[in-house]
Amino acid sequence: MAIDDTKRSRIISSYASAVLDIPPDSDKWDFKLLTTWLLLLRDYYAQEIPGFIYLRPTTSSNPDWVHVSKDLRAQVLSIAIEPEASVSSTQHLVSQEVGKQQDDGSVKLNHKTCVLMLRDDEIEANGSHQEIAKIFERLKVELLLTISTSGGASIASIWNDALKQPAFSPCRVLKSFTQIFEQVSSQPNIKADEIFCATDLDIESMCSFNSKKDVKNAEIPECLHVLINTHYMEHPQKTALSSSTRDMSYLELGQKSAAVAQILVNRGVRPGETVGICLEKSIWTITILLGILRAGAAYVPMDPSYPPGRITQILARADIRHLVISDTLRKKLGDIMAESIVLSENEDLHIPHDWSKEKYKEIHDPAYIIFTSGSTGTPKGVIQHHKAVSLSLVECIEAFEINSSTRFMQFSSLAFDASILELWSPLVAGGCVCVPSEEERSSDLESTMRMLRVTDAWLTAGLVKQLQPENLPDLARLSVGGEAPSEDVITTWGNRVKLNNLYGTTEAGVWDTAKLAMEPGDNPRNIGRGIGKVSCWIADPSNAQRLRPVGAEGELLVQSPYLAHGYLKDPELSAGVFLHPSSLKWGSLVPISEGSRIYRTGDLAKFTADGDIVFLGRQGGFIKIRGLRVDLGEVEHAINSTASVYRSAIVLSKDGGSNVEMAAFVETTEKIETQLADVLHTRLSKVLPSYMIPTMFIPVEKLPMTTSKKIDRPRLRRDLSQMSQKSLERFRKGGSVATEYSTIPSTKPRAIEISCMVADLLTSRDKIYADSFRGKDFPLETVGLSSMQLVSLATLLRKRYNKKITIGSLRCHALTVCDVEDLVLKGKKETADGIEARNLIDDLTKLKPKLPFAYSRRKTVFLTSITGFLGSQILRSLLRNPEIEHIIGLVRAKTEEEARGKVEHQAKLGQWWEPSFFNRIEVWLGDLGKPQLGLNTSHMNRLWGRHGHSPVDGIVHNGARVNWIESYEELEPVNVHSTLEILSGLSEMTFPCPLIYISGGYMPTEQESLSEVAKKLSSAPGYDQTKFMSELLLEEYNKHLDKQKGNIPKARTIIPGFIVGTRQEGIAHQEDFLWRFAFSIARLQAVSKDLLGHLNVAGVDQVSNLVTDVLLQPDRYDKHTLKCFDGINVLTLCNILEDKLNIKIKKFDHSEWMEILRSDIDQADFDHPFAPVFEWLQANPLGTASQGSLFNEQETVTALERSVEYLVGIDYFLEGSHKSGPGKSVGFSRSNF
């Protein structure tokens, strides 16, 4: 058989010809040729029912090739190819179709290919190359097959449009055609599924595409943690982990991960075992992950947002005996099979003497198990061994140019396989992992990346759209994955950074393929070639034994020595997708690297002409949501498992990209159509992660079925596409409420503006629908905002109002546009033009610890009451400030050992203790109620710099006796005389050091004078009086300084409001007034309407950081007395209590509420927390009309939420916890000195 391959001068068309080995007068010659073309189209276009236009001239004159006329006979041939059917039966169907009469005028030339038959008498008029070229170009098809007869021979020619299908070279397609034709002619009984379309030319090309001349030979494999180990000693002081609040060196990472490993081993963790971990992303979490590996175990990550039901499933599936978890989540999960391990970085970690030694190096043990969505309703675990992941990681490091200067952002969830590259590649390369907090990820990612000086990042394409390259000067390499980037992403970023488009599966290596250095104009779906030793093949999705030709669509197969071991406890599923090349008919034709297997990805793709791979999407049953793979079978299984549901089917909205939505059509067994979305969303949220829950639930009487009794999903997709956005609104969560939304009044211009922001985000779907929301106060959850659109909204709000709003806040149930305006306005300090002023000094404070140079001389600070609730946190803040070297703390105790024990005990209660702090704290035995603070002469000399001693650099006087019942005389020695002693000592000094006094009790308004306050407090409780007296003493001291010459620092007074726990740990002081108040509200499930005003509240970490800041940067504050008017509305406290305790709080008139409270106190058979402060509340107003600007309000709300969670966890809100005797909750208590 001779093949003539001639390329035309015109760019769009080229052709190849071959003489067939069968004469045109043979039996059923034309039907065999047409059958051959159908079989070829089935593979090239991945069509189960391939079709084409069959053209035959009716006369020898020149026909009109654009319109079907009397001179041209055209017929559509479209026949279903049954895999098990013989080619002879398919040929018979072809003959039947060709024999049918068809109205020529009804034929539309809308197929991609044509077949033109020319016999001897037609060749002279129409068969020349020039004429057929004209015919081909005017038909506007991608492929044209011409069959001509000349001199008793049959000649087949393939014409190709190189612009539409550059990979379908005529020579390659012709080779496939002749190969299939030979099989059809010689084997009439061969099954359609046994016919090979891919030729030796395709195999040769694919092998060439997969050839890696520059790939280095694999190094001797090591365990993942062993690869990191070398940096502990070689670069001990180099930063390994970095966040906005702290850094961790390689030395510290090595020591602490070894300590974690030792703890786990002591708790019974054995080599080869699986250890679950369910923690928020942080530097400490990464340290624990490394510790698990160093203990010889594999980690199984679970996202803290998972519902308890899913976590329980994973624990059981992976036989997890030990789960590292936070204390809060442990209480949320309740009883579980695994032993819960709460690891605090602040506990007394014992660093093993051989901490740098790796004891467990078995490369064939699992490194981690990541669970993905599973069709059976149970998530499936993918097991990755050390050898595979380490070698794959090394190849990714080389491909992505990761090195010791890399600062890679760890953005994705630890439960998602994209985290592997982010976590481990920088550490293996000696670089740095940058860890944004959950709030920073969702509210202000761009500025966080800039602050952390991120050089490398992986993000989904939807998130990349939220960033601007000019705002990220350090970013050098940006990888996108999970979904195809849009053309505008490539245009925006292609010339600014090295933009990589990545493709990967959990079951394969770290990443499988990469299109490196994308440029504007590149195909967004081009995922490049295999990384390192990864090879890629395209096969028939229904039969991996059949390779598809180059350029044809099919299932992407990944061949790699780094594939996962398989699915946990599912050998049958593993055997179906993890294949050995020897099991494939074409396996012997391709090069096999040592240990490589083949994984069936379930993704559709094709080769380009130059060997890159173009991703075409998932096969049915799988989708990607925000880059995460979702098995629709698992979601449908969860829906069908709920009461009142018979069966369901999920389809995707036509809006593609990052805004795709899942819509569930549901057959219900109960009449709950109007509330279906609310009911199912609530039920599914207990077993599925949020990203797997459909956004629409559409009730139907019966799901449509195909003739084969399968759910007719194409019809459901059509039905969904024909529904208006307005009609879909009632099928969303919250959509059962009335959809006639009120108009926002003109007095709320920001709310109107926010409604327009939301409308703009919805415009791409339905402009009329989107415009209906402009100026309306609607709940956000009812309008169909996708997760990425919520991210966009948060970004718009931050940029427009300079206010960070978290995604979690925007997801709150029933949150309306006006509620969003309230979030924006909370705690804002605005300029004249209505835009919030940026506090650049605050920004500087956050950045200063990142400066590489050391401070000229680090300071020593004297702190009173370092074992109290606030004092312990002030100590924490001072220790973590790089300007502070040494803290001297006054402690009331009998011995120094007892005093140190108290300090360490309180720090551990607060979960912040580190052994390295021990040598930086000096304890002095003393008593604030005694002369000279109860200090000995030596300590007094050192404190005031007498007899040649260097004085301290600052004093923080925080100690006091807090008692709301005792008189002024009883409290005076501790609360007043101690202040007098300190001021007297300062007055003796030549250069007095700064003094920060922490006051309390009554907080005057800005308008009240000292004399007015003194008059008001004349009959107040002794505590208010003594604290105010100390404030007066400081005023006298400052007046004295005004008379002196020289720049002597004035004494500063800080008056906090109510103090709650920290934003991180939430450990609250149970005896504080606020919690007594909260207990009463929760117990009564009622609150006074008069007490719903503003409360001065802050987190204890916010107050302690303010103290440190005032001490070290006094010029930032122009007033000598700082009154912390910041806080929240009592209604916010009530909302938090309702949410955390699952209660409803009613509002009563004040007198009625006070009477109910009094009665509850009198009748209580336990120590009612509010009893000691009831009379104080009767005599004093609770709220204030003032608003502060010292603290971030959202951070205060977070601290309040964490505190309530902590108190719920220790049963504070149960009356049994307040009965006298043993068994009472252990926590912070007043030091009373």
What does this structure look like?
Helix 7 (224-234) packs across helix 8 (250-266) and helix 29 crosses helix 36. The longest helix is centred in the last third of the chain and has 22 residues, at 1022-1043. The chain has 1233 residues and is an alpha/beta fold. Strands 18, 19, 20, 21, 22, 23, 24, 25, 27, 28 and 29 form an 11-stranded mixed β-sheet that branches. Strands 1-2-7-6-5-3-4 form a 7-stranded mixed β-sheet. A 7-stranded parallel β-sheet has the order 39-38-37-40-41-42-46, covered by helices on one side. Strand 30 and strand 31 form a beta hairpin. Among the domains are: 3-197, Chloramphenicol Acetyltransferase (2-Layer Sandwich); 622-723, ANL, C-terminal domain (GMP Synthetase, Chain A, domain 3, 2-Layer Sandwich); 742-838, Non-ribosomal Peptide Synthetase Peptidyl Carrier Protein, Chain A; 858-1055, Rossmann fold, CATH 3.40.50; 1058-1218, NAD(P)-binding Rossmann-like Domain (Rossmann fold, 3-Layer(aba) Sandwich), CATH 3.40.50.720. The radius of gyration is 37 Å and the shape is elongated. It has 40 helices and 48 strands. Residues 234-568 form the AMP-dependent synthetase/ligase domain. It comes from Penicillium subrubescens.
